[in-house]
């Protein structure tokens, strides 16, 4: 897949429109430590299987970004890979610096739907294999979260899956600078969900960030990736 094909390069649309934009410089207007955390019992493979097998009645908190692109919507998928370690983690990628847009950003493996893809799940599995070498045989698909519409008109289906810990990844060096894991309990803890707000082009833009200290290296998770994780939290606590 070429760098022009991946919605992960366009998810955080402000960076495409403001080349010097740095989301880290936008003030935090609040966090959500008042919201309930997920109990440890809910952070197990079986608990996730049960939740997706019998999903609750709920509404996603973040459905769409303010539209930037004036073009036809493009269907896409990402894989939300939950690795079955002693403590569950989420596998994420760091985009390469050589990409023309959104270089260096954190993203889920994913991309736009190809004509031969029979459904969003196939798109997510194919893209994860192409980007990081994740074999479909190591993936147990649990289900999908609600569609997330990016500001650049990508209609993204987040596919949540359990991943075998005995995986050997082969990141595509043209697209992926690094692959890393973040504890699921950190990502789904609302106390770590920072809210940001910015007035731009006559509109108020809002988004979440979830900066993670990975052994002294900051993994700055924000924009659509953070928005989909926020919906994952809401799904698990509904």
Over all CA atoms, what is the radius of gyration?
A: 17 Å
Q: Regarding CATH, which class? A: Alpha Beta
What's the CATH architecture? Answer: Alpha-Beta Complex
- Taken from the alpha-carbon principal axes, the silhouette is globular
Largest sheet at a glance? Answer: 8 strands, mixed
Query: Helicity range of the residues?
Result: 10-25%
Q: How many independent structural domains?
A: 1
**Broad structural category:** alpha+beta
Q: Predict the CATH topology.
A: Nucleoside Triphosphate Pyrophosphohydrolase
CATH homologous superfamily identity: Nucleoside Triphosphate Pyrophosphohydrolase
Helix/strand order, N-terminal first: HEHEEEEHEEEEHEEEEH
Report the β-strand fraction as a percent range.
Answer: 25-35%
Number of helices: 5
Mean pLDDT: 88
End-to-end distance, in Å? 36 Å
- Give the tally of β-strands: 13
Uncertain regions: pLDDT < 50 for 5+ in a row? 1-19
